[in-house]
Amino acid sequence: MKRDSIRWNPSHNKRPKSNTCFSPRTGKPLSVYPSHSAAKQGADYANSAYDSNLVPYQCKKCRKWHLSPQDRHTPSRVCPKCIGANGRRKSLYKTQSDAASRADILAKEQQVDLTVYKCPHNRGWHLTKAQ
Ligand SMILES: [Zn+2]
Ligand SMILES: [Zn+2]
After folding, report:
1. Residue 49: closest CA among 25, 34, 75, 31
2. Which of 45-49, 57-61, 70-74, 104-108 has the lowest mean pLDDT?
3. Which of 42, 52, 60, 69 is most exposed by smallest CB count within 10 Å?
């Protein structure tokens, strides 16, 4: 019996959870912070404790702050040449691996199957729905 392992952990209990916002990956409530500096502290703590790479962002829904893994913030811009199927300019990724990691995130969050391809105008890399 390892009852001792179920200890109250202040660092966990101190983090308030949102009741409006949930992780698209896990469906669990997101940690919520009242300000950027509080979120930054939370991120610093988590990054050193769990070896993660979280960054604070302000939520559009609840106007408070949550943490998001850095890899979500894949640098992207729009291609000046390519228009997507929805009539909007296509997102452009600087490197193939940026595009691939974005595809990975979208696959997990939205269950879409995306393929990376090179911009025909040589501006970078795009994603397209796999057939
Ligand atoms: Zn929120
Ligand atoms: Zn393009």
Report:
1. 31
2. 70-74
3. 60
